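Lecture notes, unit on protein representations.

Consider one protein chain, 151 amino acids long.
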Amino acid sequence: MDENIRRKIEALLDAHRIMTVATLRPDGWPQATTVGYVNEGLLLYFLCGLDSQKAANLARDDRVSLTIDHDTPDIMRITGLSMAARATPVRDRSEAERILGLLPGKYPAQTTPLPMPMPTPDQVRIFRVEPVVISVLDYSQGFGHTDLVRC
């Protein structure tokens, strides 16, 4: 992967904290859900309920599609990412604790304490998302401009 495009992808990942992730339901229909995430380089992590539909979907099929973007009043400033990726559960407790410890860092403006304690690795399912194909959207380079990157 070209180093400039890698830096651009990582900058977009670092600048955001919410993504829409689509998994496949048992009936074949996609299910899109908004989740918070943290990233380490190109690896993304999100959590969900132990018995959530997302967790059940991913137990059957680890393929996901996701988008990361934001609203802008200027159409030519649209930027974002979409990915085809594989999502696997984090089973190592020390990795899970480390990821949970990264989450508050995505919300530096949070000045009031959460109304409940942060969940423990036993209370949530944490998924590691490894990109397979990334589409980098950047309208500043032309209307609808995308760079397709295989990982």
